Amino acid sequence: MAQKPSIPKGTRDFGPQEMARRNYIFDTIREVYSLFGFQQIETPAMENLSTLMGKYGEEGDKLLFKILNSGDFLREADPDCLAAGASGRLAAQLCEKGLRYDLTVPFARYVVQHREELTLPFRRYQIQPVWRADRPQKGRYREFYQCDADVVGTDSLLSEVELMQIVDEVFHRFGIRVCIKINNRKVLSGIAELIGEADKIVDITVAIDKLDKIGPEAVADELREAGLSDEAVVKLQPILGLHGSNEEKLAAMRALLTDSETGLKGLDEVEYVMSHLLQMRSEVEFDLTLARGLNYYTGCIFEVKALDVQIGSITGGGRYDNLTGIFGMPGLSGVGISFGADRIYDVLNQLQLYPQTVTNATQLLFINFGETETAYCLPILARLRKAGIRCEIYPDAAKMKKQMQYANQKQIPFVALAGETEMAEGKVTLKDMQTGQQQLLTAEEMVERLSR
């Protein structure tokens, strides 16, 4: 017996009902992005590895899916590397392309490549899949969709404010209660200065970013392994454990970072953004443990957590001042957010928040009685479809029982029957599959009935 086919771990199939729900997510986000003046672009699934490598830190580079070169890819391989099994060096020789890890770095490449065509500030959104060679677990997949919005070409913090307003509007439409967490990489740099480890800022942010996953003790161990002194680790712990209202935490950090120009600037930026978010329906929190492990962030950073479901962040983002400089276009600041569509899908499923209207299922099935009846029904089908009624005709003149079973299995709510009597009167019998009630209707009357 042939082995049943399967899909790679960390990926998923989506059937018709699931796709209807996913499209509800994409369409909602797309509509809100458009309301705020963002325009859609797309970039290729694969990029040159030279575009991707070095942009996500050492941890991110390890999670890049690399694509073997076409043809005789071993021809260029170093025989010594092959013999030694040096996979890292071999990958550099055998792979020139990789699957995109996120949408932000490809977007930065796009901006630099098409800079003559763009009007700055440029507001773009992008809804496409990304791939990461991560360990699959609940809420974490190797292939997943991101729904990004970015503004490049302005330093204005109003961009951060508007992006948070987008987050608030999207989750209000979904009916998901969320907490928007805000921090600033300049504040984290100030903290690194305060504990005497300014040169370890990358190690500190990578470790802090794992706080929710591995806990404070494991984070402390990781920081020591990265070379931080015991004294620095001890100084850091009460800062990360700082509690109170947003105003109290901001005041406490101002007192601590009084000698750090960078840290105080970061606090100013956080305070400005939060002061313009007072009318938000979502909870907003200044969270000093928020680090966002990606190296390219330089200013405000954001994460969104669902309040009623145990799951990782469902949206994230931040300000990046130097990303396009990597591609030869320095001095172009940007800020962006990314909705995690797959996690939002899981949250909506768990909380059962999908509207009943979210479906692309057939509303009406025409029973097939034969060629003559089919010829009579086809113009009516066209009329109904023109009116937006989702309908189909059974392809074969099978037994009535089989066709009715088909309707039941697909949960089609109405069935249309057209035999000699109906054709003589220029009408169709419409049967409600739930109540069993039947009505003899014209095509126009069917449109009116099914549109209610």
Fold and architecture overview:
This protein is an alpha+beta fold and 452 residues long. The chain has two domains: 16-45 and 98-351, BirA Bifunctional Protein, domain 2; 364-451, Anticodon-binding domain (Rossmann fold). 43% of the residues lie in helices and 18% in strands. It is built from 18 helices and 16 strands. It has helices at residues 16-35, 49-52, 57-62, 79-84, 87-94, 104-113, 158-174, 185-194, 201-208, 211-225, 230-240, 246-256, 261-275, 341-351, 371-386, 400-409, 420-425, 443-451, and strands spanning 39-40, 46-48, 66-68, 95-99, 122-131, 143-152, 178-184, 283-286, 300-306, 315-320, 334-340, 364-366, 391-393, 414-417, 428-432, 438-441. An eight-stranded mixed beta sheet has the order 1-5-6-11-10-9-7-8. Helix 15 (371-386) links the parallel strand 12 (364-366) and strand 13 (391-393). The radius of gyration is 28 Å and the shape is elongated. The model has no long low-confidence stretch (mean pLDDT 90).
Relevant terms:
18% strand; BirA Bifunctional Protein, domain 2; alpha+beta; 16 strands; 5-stranded mixed β-sheet; 2 domains
Summarize the structure.
By secondary structure, the chain is an alpha+beta fold.
Q: Can you identify the CATH superfamily of the largest domain?
A: Bira Bifunctional Protein, Domain 2
Main sheet attributes: strand count, strand direction, barrel closure = 8 strands, mixed
Helix content: 40-55%
How much strand?
A: 15-25%
Strand order of the largest sheet: 1-5-6-11-10-9-7-8
Contiguous uncertain segments of 5+ residues:
none
- CATH domain class name of the largest domain: Alpha Beta
The gyration radius over C-alpha positions equals: 28 Å
Average pLDDT rating: 90
How many domains comprise the coordinates? Answer: 2
CATH architecture of the largest domain: 2-Layer Sandwich
Q: Supply the number of helical segments.
A: 18
Q: Tell me the total number of β-strands.
A: 16
